[in-house]
């Protein structure tokens, strides 16, 4: 397989690159000027200078590639500017789809999120059938994901052989931005100032990477949930404390208070582009969270679900190795 | 391309200033990357990734996560550079 990975330096991207290389694929990865290539340059991949804002470079990057994986579409850092976030996300996905159509790629694998699902009927878990009829209004993150998926749907209607995968919250190695794993890092380090209850779905990033590789071949459906384990946030935090140490956050906020607190934190952090303890996106995911089924992905993509504790252990091991979490051998320096 | 130790340090300081969005002249050796310059782990990785490309050196990512100050980063880059380039004449 001759693959192009867009977003190959990111969390899922690096795991996908490793899975492709393990299968003997010829892998090309796009890079932007500011891309952290240190980890990619340790792997046998070709780096190609192109960003989602450069349609012609994207098309050239896709030349001679059988499969394109778009694993790095726009990910809004903050949920502040809804219109700008949607516009940026849509423009990037549209450019990638147009380039894929022009380059005549055989298969286009797009990474979305279970955040783009609609609420399922009460008698079953949510799955790939649950598409919101209109753009979500309760969450910038969900709105961006919804809008970007529609671009892929539009390109599919115009002949692009595209499949969309919707992973749950990923856990595992190479999470250098500490996304969903901030639950783990924040709890073990006692840095979570508050929490809000809800349902989250956690999946090992290795399962998601394997699903992506499987989706490079024709599939019966054009949309698959790649979910893992449905857990309540309160249960998860207590489980983390019992398994790895740390402390439960002291304050439990109501959904409205959690949204307001996350918004205030993001507005304060934006001028310096700094991290917030709990992004609004995670609050939205927990509050709107619902049990998700991956039954079609198990059947059609052969996805096996890694046990939750194994996924947590793999993530914990990575965070310790890269000093996000202190260990007895390498305690962290405090400011 | 052969560079001197001073050129390598200057390159590093310029990159730190760019990533931390601060003035080059204000970057000092004892400043802490995280607390004083607001650089998170990803920022530190971005810095070392760019330096390693500019100087054609391979850097150990895990060791890089231990770096605390600008001087730590300069020493780490210099040590890696000298280990990988046979240019002892360029140390001055």
Give your account of this protein's structure.
Chain A has 335 residues and is an alpha/beta fold. Chain A has 11 helices and 12 strands. Chain A has a domain at 2-170 and 205-228 and 291-305: NAD(P)-binding Rossmann-like Domain (Rossmann fold, 3-Layer(aba) Sandwich), CATH 3.40.50. Chain A has helices spanning 11-22, 55-62, 82-103, 140-157, 182-188, 205-214, 233-244, 255-269, 280-287, 295-300, 308-321; strands at residues 2-6, 26-31, 46-49, 67-70, 107-111, 162-167, 169-171, 194-195, 199-204, 223-226, 229-232, 251-252. A 7-stranded parallel beta sheet of chain A has the order 3-2-1-4-5-6-10, with helices on both faces. In chain A, strands 7-9-11 form a 3-stranded mixed beta sheet. In chain A, helix 4 links the parallel strand 5 (107-111) and strand 6 (162-167). Chain A is globular, with a radius of gyration of 19 Å. Chain A starts with a strand and ends in a 14-residue tail after the last helix. Chain B contains 4 helices and no strands. Chain B has helices spanning 5-20, 41-54, 61-64, 70-84. In chain B, helix 1 (5-20) runs antiparallel to helix 2 and helix 1 packs across helix 4. Chain B is globular and about 35 Å long. Chain B starts with a helix and ends in an 8-residue tail after the last helix. The chains are: A alpha/beta (335), B mainly alpha (92). The interface between A and B is medium-sized, with 21 and 20 residues.
């Amino acid at each position: 397989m001759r693959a192009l990975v867009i977003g190959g330096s990111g969390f899922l991207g690096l795991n996908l690159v490793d899975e492709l290389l393990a299968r003997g694929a010829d892998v090309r990865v796009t890079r932007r000027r500011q891309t952290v290539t240190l980890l990619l340059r340790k792997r046998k991949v070709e780096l190609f200078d192109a960003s989602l804002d450069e349609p012609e470079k994207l098309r050239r990057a896709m030349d001679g590639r059988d499969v394109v994986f778009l694993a790095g579409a726009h990910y809004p850092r903050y949920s502040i500017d809804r219109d700008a976030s949607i516009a940026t996300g849509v423009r990037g996905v549209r450019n990638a789809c147009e380039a894929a159509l022009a380059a005549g790629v055989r298969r286009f694998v797009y990474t979305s999120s279970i955040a783009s699902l609609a609420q399922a009927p009460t008698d079953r878990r949510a799955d790939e059938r649950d598409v919101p009829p209109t753009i979500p209004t309760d969450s910038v993150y969900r709105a961006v994901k919804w809008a970007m998926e529609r671009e892929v749907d539009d390109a599919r209607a115009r002949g692009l052989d595209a499949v969309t995968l919707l992973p749950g919250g990923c856990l595992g190695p190479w999470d250098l931005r500490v996304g969903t794993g901030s639950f783990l890092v924040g709890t073990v380090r006692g840095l979570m100032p508050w929490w809000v209850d809800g349902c989250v779905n956690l999946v090992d990033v290795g399962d998601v990477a394997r699903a992506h590789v499987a989706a490079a071949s024709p599939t019966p459906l054009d949309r698959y949930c790649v979910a893992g384990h449905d857990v309540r946030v309160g249960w998860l935090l207590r489980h983390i404390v019992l398994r790895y140490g740390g402390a439960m956050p002291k304050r439990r906020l109501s959904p409205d208070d959690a949204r307001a607190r996350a918004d205030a934190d993001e507005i304060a952090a934006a001028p310096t582009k700094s991290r917030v303890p709990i992004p609004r996106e995670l609050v939205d995911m927990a509050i709107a969270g619902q049990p998700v089924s991956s039954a079609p992905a198990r059947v059609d993509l052969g996805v096996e679900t890694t046990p939750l504790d194994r996924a947590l252990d793999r993530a914990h091991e990575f965070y310790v190795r890269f000093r996000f979490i202190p260990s007895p051998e390498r305690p962290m320096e405090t400011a | 391309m052969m560079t001197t130790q001073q050129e390598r340090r200057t390159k590093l300081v310029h990159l730190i200033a760019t990533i931390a969005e601060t003035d080059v002249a204000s970057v000092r050796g004892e400043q802490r990357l995280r607390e004083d310059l607001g650089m998170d782990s990803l920022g530190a990785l971005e810095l070392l990734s760019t330096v390693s490309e500019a100087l054609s050196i391979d850097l150990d990512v895990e060791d890089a996560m231990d770096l605390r100050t600008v001087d730590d980063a300069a020493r780490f880059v210099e040590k890696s550079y000298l280990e990988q380039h046979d240019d002892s004449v360029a140390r001055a």
